[in-house]
Amino acid sequence: MKRAAALFLLASSLVGAGAALGGSVGPCQDPWLFPDARVNVVVLPYEPADPLRRQLLDAGEQLAYLVKLRALFSILDYGSVGAVHLKSHDRRPCRIEEVLGRLVPRLRPGHGLVLVTGRVFEDGGSVFVQTSLRLLRGGPPETLEVKLPTGEAVTSARRDREVVFEPAELAAADLKTLQERYRTATALRGQPSAEEKPASDLPEFHAYSVIGREGEWIRVRLAEGRDGWIQASSGDSLFERLPELRFLAGLAGYAVALSYPPASPEARRTAAAADAQLRAFADAPDDSATTSALAAELRARLLLHAGGDGALGRAQEVLQDAAKRNPSSAEIRSLAAVLRLKAFAAGDTKAALQAAASLNAGLTFAPDDRELQANLLALYKAAQDPGKSRLTPLQAGFPQEKLGEQIAALEASRSENSILMAQTVFAVKDLLRTQFPKSGIDVSLRAGTLRISGSVPQRDVAKILKAVKSAQGVRAVRNDLTPVMEPPR
User: 73, 293, 359, 459: least surrounded by Cβ within 10 Å?
Assistant: First the structure.
């Protein structure tokens, strides 16, 4: 452990301020990131559903290392990045909240951290891997807003949430390829060639700065001063089955772009590269509607941040596609309202009504969403104010005699929901404690959606969901349960 800490301290001296390009492997119990990097990609082991299965345990560690290396290779062009693989040490498991509790306070304002976690499990004789991503940023939340002449604001905040991708199946040949790739990628060579005999293997814990690149190879300088080449990408088919790696590259680029001032040359350059990755992911045939919609939403935010002629129109087009893919997303509906009100401010008189329609459509799917409620309330109050001549086109589109009723209903709903939400969470927790006393399920409520998470036996998942959905006051449920395969009896 002391050796790892010493390597990390030395590695920090290799990374210049504002030009961080580096990678490392370290223990979860002493997590570290590149302090000058505008984004750090931190990869934890892919946890096996059965920790006693050595094959799954090894596959999870090897996959995490290769994902870290591929991520670093794909984001080098962003110019200020770090990639860290954290692994278990002394048989102590990696705990996500402990890692984040150590790393997030170290983030500089505006800098980002993309956390990569995952699981490895067997089903029907096949091995599956499933990846989850989460973006956290230092400083205040990312919020876009439009100020109305009445002083009210319509806002759209990017919500911090975990993105879970579809499991990918690995055949026996894929596991063999994984082992071979891991052996190749942990070797340090004197020249960028697989034919070159390795000079040495990388230490278990190590840190390096990237000082060059040639094809699929990166030249690195280890913390202790040695130089060498690592094969960072081999173009093998294994990673073609993990389209989330494109999303990961786009998400990291998104974080870097937003760390620069809006419309700056650096923001535009990085946003263009990140947009290409996210667009490629969204256009892939195998992605889910939810994740492809999120990719489109991030693209819209990038376009607005990069600015330039026609940026608002392009962002609206991208967001319309996102809404088609995932019409129930409250986040997309609020962002659409903000964009339409920006268009309204630019002279599009129909855009205000379209903003209201977007918010109302969102409330149809998520009636308890606080942001949607607050935005629609602000818009209705602005439309009701007769003293603001700039809002005449807005006022003309709304039935004035009903606005007061709608405002009163929204205000009452917001007040009642605060109490009802707390009561609902308490009732569901009590129900699960009674029916599934050993499950250890966590229940929380965010944006009107009840979230249930935790590791439970696979045979209980359907029963738990049925029980939760039947509870009084539950309208929408997000299933984040992790099914655990039980050993045969």
Answer: 459
Query: Does domain 420-484 correspond to CATH entry 3.30.450.20?
Result: no
Sorted by where each begins, the domain ranges of the chain are 1-242, 260-324, 327-398, 420-484
What is the DSSP pairing of strand 187-189 with strand 81-87? unpaired
Q: If DSSP codes are grouped into helix, strand and coil, which group holds residue 62?
A: helix
* Pairing label, strands 153-157, 81-87: unpaired
CB 471 within 8 A of CB 427: yes
pLDDT of residue 17: 37
Whole-number pLDDT of residue 15: 46
pLDDT at residue 489, rounded to an integer: 47
DSSP string over 168-235: EEE-HHHHHHHHHHHHHHTEEESSS-TTSPEEEEPPSSEEEEEEEEETTEEEEEETTS-EEEEE----
Taking all residues of the chain, what is their mean pLDDT, rounded to a whole number?
84
pLDDT per residue over 216-238, tens digit each?
A: 999 999 988 889 999 998 766 66
Nearest C-alpha neighbor of 383 from the set 366, 359, 364: 359
The dihedral built from the CA positions of residue 161, 163, 164 and 170, taken in this order, carries a sign that is negative
Which long-range contacts does 460-468 make (Cβ < 8 Å, 24+ apart)?
460/436, 463/435, 463/436, 464/432, 464/436, 464/439, 467/431, 467/432, 467/435, 467/436, 468/428, 468/431, 468/432
